[in-house]
Every structure is written in structure tokens, then in C-alpha cells.
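Dear support,

We are seeing what looks like truncated structure output for some complexes. This example has two components. We would appreciate it if you could run it in full and send us the complete C-alpha cell output so we can diff it against ours.
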Amino acid sequence: MGRPFFRRRKSCPFSGKNAPKIDYKDTRLLQGFMSERGKIVPSRITAVSGKKQRELGQAIKRARQIGLLPYLVK
Amino acid sequence: MRIASDRLNDIKEAAVPLYEHVFLARQDLSQAQVDALAATATEIVEAGEGKVVKTETWGLKSLAYKIKRNRKAHFVMLDIDAPTGVVAELERQTAINEDVIRYMTVRVEEHEAGPSVQMRKTDRDRPRRRDREEF
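Here is the complete output from our reference environment:
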């Protein structure tokens, strides 16, 4: 057991070399950052950096607008 | 003074904005009608001294939610290189057209070279993966 509150330091999935580019057309990538209900997952869970999370949010919202992604999944 | 105005022209040329225009056509249109819509859009852009760099038809895709009673729609994307007024005119005419159920124009820093993600992936409809970075 050891350290119960220890969390491994996570790094942003969009930084570093050959990181995926955030694009509203890439629904598969964006879906990985949405919950089953269709909500955007907070960055504290996905470890996305603040800057990239804002880009991600915008991309998801754009994809929703043109019907590529759902606003909510019932 | 001449030098200054020349430089201003250089700046203007470099600053022609790039856009991506996506529109969704009604599901009961034929592919030929969709292509005609894309051609009309191209004409509008070219009439305003803009350029359509690339036209992509993503085909009939199912929508994540119903839009104007359509469950599916034909997706078309145009990569546009044009002054701002042209985009306003394009959006105005697109909004009037009843065959287009939705459209969106996004300004981009640069156009993607080659086909976009939508064209690349063919195994799109397999069940979505549920793995996320560890919690």
C-alpha cells in the first residue's frame, strides 16, 4: 500500500513530440475527452494543460454545432 | 512615401485570411445536388476574388442529434482563401438556401495539407474506445 494519496505526475497528452493536433473534425480524438453522457471531461482528470483544455473545449463545441458530436447522450 | 505604401500592400497580401467553411445538406438530396451546392458556393467565393483551395465531400454521415428533422446529412467542407466580405456574402446566401441545414465558417491559421481527418479514417463507426488516461 504505502502512500495512499500519492498520485503519479501526469503530463498533458497534447504536449510533446507527435502529440495529436486538436481539430474539431477529429471526432474520435475529441470523444476520448468526453464522458459517456457527452460532457467535456475536466482537465484535472485528463491531465490536459490549461491552454490545451481551452482549445479542446472550443473544438468540441464546434464539432457539436455541426452535428458531429452530441450535446448530450440520453 | 512610396516605399511605405508598397510595404502596406505587402502586408495586405500576406494577411488574406484563411477559412474553413463546412455545410450540411439535407439527407434526401442526391450526391449530384450536393456537388451543385458546393459549386454554387465556389462561384460565390470566386465572384468576390477569393479562392477555394480545396473541396472535400465527407458524404452522407449520421448526425449526433437531429437537425431540422434530419437524422443524416451530406457534409461538405471548403478551404477558402478570401477577404472577409466574401465570407459574409457566402454565409448570407447559405442561410437562405433551404437545402443547407447547417453551416459553419471557421478562421484557421493555415489550411491542412492533404485530406482532413474525416477523409482519412474509414473505420470510424467502430465502437468508441473507453480508455482514458489513468484516473
